[in-house]
Amino acid sequence: TNLSLNPFSFPYETRVEAISSLSLDVECLKSLDETIDAFFAEYERTNRAELFEGLCPYFGVPWPAGLALAKLIDEEAEKWRGREVLEIGCGLALPSLVLSRAGALVTATDLHPDVPHFLDRNRVRNRIPGPDFLFLDWRLDRSLPPAELILGSDIVYDRQQPVQIVKFLLSFSSWREAIFTDPGRPDWGVFVSALREQGWKMEERDRKSTRLNSSHVA
């Protein structure tokens, strides 16, 4: 299908991927590489190439870390029924969809202007009433709804991110648990070390996921 979205009415070529392990049918980009090539060509043609980096649609595919987080949280979804959850850098928001289906009160957040359009279509496609969506730069914005649980997948993609995430967690007082997954980015180890320095209780799984408890180690 073609999906034309704001702010530049770019015609995304999409497909529906059945994610059987999550019982979800997810509309996503037909080809990320082809979409990026078309984006760049369009921005060059319109002399808007400087916008390419900020609007590149990396959000539009189910990345391994996002799938891993969604599967992990699906195992304990009932635990979060009726409780407030915040997903940062959500992309296709698979974890948010899974928890919303289970009755959690989820707010999915991202910077890209086209994320909520995909999210709306996938909510309808899967007959899930949530999550809510909020445009958010978690590196800067602290005006957030309260949440007991924070989720993030593949968000340590440059060397500044570990410090920025720790600052975010320190400034956001309502959380009790946080779960992050990663595909093996170079700065993941730096991130884990930065978290450990704060004294939060931590549980690591296979060196690519970390669960935090906001209580400090005694």
Task: Summarize the model shown.
This protein is an alpha/beta fold.
List keywords for this structure.
seven-stranded mixed beta sheet; alpha/beta; three-stranded antiparallel beta sheet; 218 residues; single chain
Write up this protein.
The protein has 218 residues and is an alpha/beta fold. It is built from seven helices and ten strands. It has helices spanning 32-45, 52-55, 64-74, 94-101, 115-126, 161-171, 188-197, and strands spanning 2-5, 10-19, 24-29, 84-88, 105-110, 132-135, 149-153, 177-181, 200-205, 209-216. The strands form two sheets. The protein has a seven-stranded mixed sheet with strand order 6-5-4-7-8-10-9, with helices on both faces. Strands 1-2-3 form a three-stranded antiparallel sheet. β2 and β3 form a beta hairpin. The longest helix is centred in the N-terminal third of the chain and has 14 residues, at 32-45. The chain is globular, with a radius of gyration of 17 Å. The termini are far apart. The model has no long low-confidence stretch (mean pLDDT 87).
